[in-house]
Design goal:
Bound molecules: nicotinamide-adenine-dinucleotide
Helix content: 40-55%
CATH topology: Rossmann fold
Structural class: alpha/beta
Number of helices: 11
CATH architecture: 3-Layer(aba) Sandwich
Largest sheet: 6 strands, parallel
Number of domains: 1
Shape: globular
């Protein structure tokens, strides 16, 4: 039986991951923790600052956890605004979560990101194993984090596993300050106002994935046969790559009057320019059967349908 503890559980990924894991493994077997308490958590919840290693250890032990999923982090755009804070939280929280997992023998998952790549990385069909010299604090944290997780695996035999998520698109919890957030905002604005001003420039391709596919990827990777895993931290995963004009065109198939213009944010545009246009997920497919169900059209139909319902209910 799985007993899973999640840090940063009230964020964009965590809030939906908790619900998915509670469906899969039972409500009482998934402990959500976060520095802030959000009332939507129906099931075990503890307030936990990931900088407090002792409390993290005590909570994991009391719960009888056998798995740690570490989600608490500062995302790319926010990390660029507060780089030192980002270093301390992203690395300090991670090393605490790894240490607790080593002490208690927990299986471990944390997401890396396409932000772990940089301008010198091959931009198209970016390979699993390639140059990683990111120019953002977030990217520096993610590369160091991948190496640290691999170190805990080779040095201590810890069962660490991770993915490099692309931008994640969801309709439940708003994103937390990433560069790809435009691809979520655009759907909200399409439903609310019929128009959107993009802070990412025309022609900027980035990888993306719909949240249901991201959550399934976490479950599938954690359940994969360890003997089949050649890589661990972290696997390229992606479902689609598009630029602003393409997502706008897809929205217009459902909402023909949708309009878009641009007011490019230089900070987030520079981050986007340093990331790949598209990544190669073949290692994830071969080693643990990664598969995404949603392409851009299928995701757009589902996003607009869900948001129309959500926004009309809240109006
Ligand atoms: P988010 O910003 O939505 O959520 C982060 C959560 O961490 C928040 O609920 C916040 O309250 C919590 N938190 C912040 N400081 C904390 C602390 N000191 N102690 C405990 N909790 C704290 O982030 P997310 O989008 O859910 O991302 C989760 C992970 O996935 C991160 O490692 C992120 O880098 C990675 N990731 C996300 C995306 C994406 O598109 N969302 C893409 C690639 C990778």
């Amino acid at each position: 039986m799985k007993k899973i503890m999640i840090t940063g559980a009230c964020g964009q990924i965590g809030s939906e991951l908790v619900a998915k894991l509670r469906d899969e493994y039972g409500k009482e077997n998934v402990l959500a923790t976060d520095i802030r308490e959000v009332s939507m958590q129906a099931g075990p919840f503890e307030v936990l600052d990931v900088m407090d290693a002792q409390r993290m250890h005590d909570i994991a032990k009391d719960f009888g956890a056998d798995t740690m999923m570490h989600m608490a982090a500062l995302l790319s755009a926010t990390a660029e605004a507060k780089p030192l804070f980002a270093w301390n939280l992203n690395m300090g929280g991670l090393v605490n979560a790894l240490e607790v997992s080593r002490e208690l023998g927990l299986q471990f998952f944390t997401p890396s990101s396409i932000g772990a790549f940089g301008p010198s990385t091959p931009k198209h069909n970016t390979p699993q194993d390639t140059l990683q010299r990111p120019t953002t604090m977030y990217g520096v944290n993610k590369v160091a984090g991948e190496l640290l997780c691999d170190y805990y695996h080779t040095r201590f035999g810890l069962d660490t596993r991770g993915v490099r998520f692309p931008g994640l698109i969801s309709n439940v919890t708003p994103p937390g300050g990433g560069t790809t957030d435009y691809a979520v905002d655009i759907y909200y604005k399409a439903v609310q106002e019929g128009k959107y001003t993009s802070y990412i420039a025309k022609g900027s391709y980035m990888d993306m994935m719909y949240m249901p596919d991201a959550l399934q990827a976490i479950v599938d990777l954690m359940e994969a046969n360890p003997e089949k895993l050649i890589h661990r931290n972290a696997f390229n995963v992606t479902a689609m790559s598009f630029e602003p004009e393409e997502i706008a065109a897809t929205i217009r198939k459902q909402m023909p009057d949708f309009q878009m213009d641009y007011d490019v944010d230089p900070v987030r545009q520079a981050i986007a320019d340093s990331w790949p246009d598209s990544i190669d997920a073949s290692a994830a497919k071969e080693e643990w059967g990664f598969k995404a169900k949603y392409d851009l059209d299928a995701m757009t139909i589902d996003m607009l349908k869900k948001l129309e319902k959500k926004i009309s209910h809240s109006a």
